[in-house]
Amino acid sequence: xxxxxxxxxxxxxxxxxxxxxxxxxxxxxxxxxxxxxxxxxxxxxxxxxxxxxxxxxxxxxxxxxxxxxxxxxxxxxxxxxxxxxxxxxxxxxxxxxxxxxxxxxxxxxxxxxxxxxxxxxxxxxxxxxxxxxxxxxxxxxxxxxxxxxxxxxxxxxxxxxxxxxxxxxxxxxxxxxxxxxxxxxxxxxxxxxxxxxxxxxxxxxxxxxxxxxxxxxxxxxxxxxxxxxxxxxxxxxxxxxxxxxxxxxxxxxxxxxxxxxxxxxxxxx
Length: 269
What we know:
The chain is mostly helical. It is built from 10 helices and no strands. GO terms for molecular function: transmembrane transporter activity.
């Protein structure tokens, strides 16, 4: 039994690079949680309408859908850790600058710029975390890594929402929004400590990115045609995603949704 316990992979047996990467994922999702409440409060204070927040949900979903088509090929031809660092630094800098400029007016503009930057970087960040997993955690450790990563995503967002409330109450909405940006910068610092092996790029993928993009997606479609079960699972998941987005938009534009607190309740998982 003692030998079995020693051989069982745990969080402590993960490599330092894997642990730093999980810290980065956790910090990033704390920022995402803060964003949910801070953006709702900013838009509600600026416009007095929850419809604008519903429109931002549509913008987020459209950006995520379009850029997800590009994120995988981009990450496969680059270094995932650099993609994660760039994504977090860009989000952190834009959000921090926007939070400073909120006092100058045009709140909706600065919030929209921040939302576009955050959601433009999100698909690339997500694709990079999937690509990095096997590079920093091998064998049975990959299962532990993926399990902790899932918990870090959910736990980080819950903690972010819990932190945002007191920050908004005691310091104001702009400082809470700035804390969102700081969390992204801390996440970039964490992933910078990870020592990640270089991702080997196959010879046939070293040509022009644009010239091979269609080939990548053509291979995906051909694989889904062969694997009908996987295709149906994806269709079901997309349907659930669209249904969730529509229901959230309807909840945010409903007459009973008249405050940022009720918006967050409507957006809860």
